[in-house]
Amino acid sequence: MKKSEVFFTNMRCEFGDSLLHKLGRVLDKADLGSLGLDRKFVAIKLHFGEPGNLAFLRPNFSKTVVDKIKSFGGMPFLTDCGTLYVGRRTHALAHMEAAQENGYWPATTGCQVIIGDGLKGTDDVEVPIEGGKVLKTALIGRAIMDADAVFSLNHFKGHEMTGFGGAIKNLGMGSGSRAGKMAMHNDGKPVIDRELCLGCKTCAKYCAQSAISFKEKKAVIDENKCVGCGRCVGSCNYNAIGVEWDTVGDALNRKMAEYAKAVVQGRPSFHINVVNHVSPYCDCHNENDAAVIPDLGIFASLDPVAVDMASIEAVNQAMTLAGSIVDDRPGGGRDLFTRIHPGSNWRSQLEHAEKIGLGRMAHKLVTVK
Ligand code: SF4
Ligand code: SF4
After folding, report:
1. For the chain, which domains are there?
2. pTM above 0.85, yes or no
3. For 318, phi and psi rounded to 5 degrees?
């Protein structure tokens, strides 16, 4: 089987050079000109970081990518979709404030931020998944699907449910609208927190299935009518509608890989993993635990599966850092993310991604100085 090329540069920088210059050289080596970006809208999917978390990617990395896309005539924008859980990125206004608080401004990145799934996370497109084995369609943020090409710029780190988060997770989970995220996370229906519900009835207006009624001035969801679309979750300004996080491990990884396929299929895409401050948990946390390995460098590829595989192999070969969560997980061998998150299985993410044709795990590492 033909191996996908993964371009890599380490963290070393001589005087007069910089990691951003090195990222630029990685992009040059990868021949972005072959993607045909001239006068094309290019969505750069990334995670702006939950405020409080300091492990997220600095905006400087995106500026280098933006400038390179512009040099080929492309029209880039930075994008992410709203979250299901309560936090600072649940709707577009809060999400843009969070992005700005973390330094993502046009002046720092060279382009605009567009929240992919609109004000309340309801602006999505139902996309058929080519080769999908678990799902037939994916609900992807409209602005991301409207783009002509997709880049993923990913902070590579651990994740409590999926083992690790890299290109596949950023593309798949991150590009799903609220309803899409619910479809990946939960095979069931949202639930009402009666303590938080004020009985304002906003959610009922959003429910096309007439599944929400009121009892003792509190919302009640009829599970027989509810189709799990997730529209009501985004409509509640009081965080009274939530999701039971019951889909973990392999099922979640497979769905996420299928969502990533829906995002990249049929158009040019390119994927960059920055393997620095490898925290054990996702950047969705409003804190970040200590890094578990030293900073390694930047991996980039046309193939999102290969770039994740190359990154995880490098992580597993690295020494671990004393004083990190690894100290609390003695034993467990070289498979670092399984050691940190024993209930997770990162391999299922990559194996399923390969099975549905998202990319190949087999890769050839090309070092860029
Ligand atoms: S929108 Fe929220 S607060 Fe209002 S009725 Fe629905 S669940 Fe209750
Ligand atoms: S998930 Fe969709 S169908 Fe179910 S109650 Fe909410 S809006 Fe209605």
Report:
1. 4-185+246-358 (3.40.50.11440), 190-243 (3.30.70.20)
2. yes
3. -80, 155
